[in-house]
Design a protein that fits this description.
By secondary structure, the protein is mainly alpha-helical. It has one domain. The protein is built from eight helices and two strands. It has helices at residues 26-38, 41-55, 65-93, 105-128, 134-153, 161-179, 186-205, 210-227; strands at 3-5, 12-14. A hairpin with a 6-residue loop joins strand 1 (3-5) and strand 2.
Length: 230
């Protein structure tokens, strides 16, 4: 990979990479990076499942606390720990990944394939547990389909993984609110707020174009909509 230094000598330009010309205030960039980290795609499934397991009064009603913890650990291992470790390992071994931020479409191919396997496994486990609430199974299926959709979109453009994740969560809570007797305004206000913050943050501190972010939102929402048909 060829590296060139720009005329001002400020930062290297790597062929195949697109760096945003970030002219935002330092505090705003700091906040945007914080939002991007807190709502990283690897954490989103854990957040939603933690809500269903430990906060929602009826989703896992009747389950012992120990059982809920084990169910959460299953999701954490399959959707956060193993995908994160895989990306880290590929980065350290320089196997198709030169940046842990996965800056190019090519770098995302192998991680996407690995993540699809882990997400499929998590959904498959919940699907075959006889006492798993259908709502949890639907969400995990939607998360798996969202990764699949992002993988195919990655062939043509570097779709935003952050936007795909929050788009999936947004439609999940939208659909969930229509059938849940415990639904409240927070079901929609919080996901909408998070989606807005994350997409704004990615526009500020990432090299994604607006189209790639809007496409990610659409892919995530479409995946969740398909999951609810099963």
């Amino acid at each position: 990979m060829t590296k060139n230094i720009d005329i001002a000598g400020v930062r290297p330009r790597v062929r195949g990479h697109r760096f945003p010309e970030n002219k935002q205030p330092a505090w705003l960039v700091f906040l945007a990076n914080g939002v991007s980290l807190i709502f990283h795609p690897l954490f989103i499934c854990c957040y939603v499942m933690a809500f269903l397991l430990f906060v929602h009064p009826a989703a896992f009603a009747g389950f012992e606390h120990r059982t809920r913890v084990f169910r959460f650990l299953n999701v954490f291992v399959c959707t956060t720990l193993l995908p994160g470790f895989t990306v880290f390992l590929l980065w350290r071994l320089r196997l198709f990944v030169e940046s842990i931020r996965l800056r190019t479409q090519k770098e995302r191919i192998i991680p996407y394939l690995a993540i699809m396997i882990f997400y499929f496994w998590s959904w498959n486990v919940y699907k075959h547990l006889p006492d798993s609430p259908p709502i949890a199974v639907k969400f995990l299926l939607g998360a798996f389909l969202a990764v699949c959709g992002a993988f195919f979109c990655n062939i043509y453009c570097k779709v935003s993984m952050h936007a795909t994740a929050v788009g999936s969560v947004l439609l999940f809570f939208l659909l969930f609110s229509f059938q849940d007797s415990y639904a409240s305004g927070a079901y929609l206000s919080v996901p909408f707020l998070v989606a807005g913050l994350v997409c704004t943050a990615r526009l500020l501190v990432s090299d994604h174009s607006p189209f790639e972010i809007y496409l990610g939102l659409f892919v995530g929402m479409l995946a969740q909509a398909l999951a609810w048909q099963f």
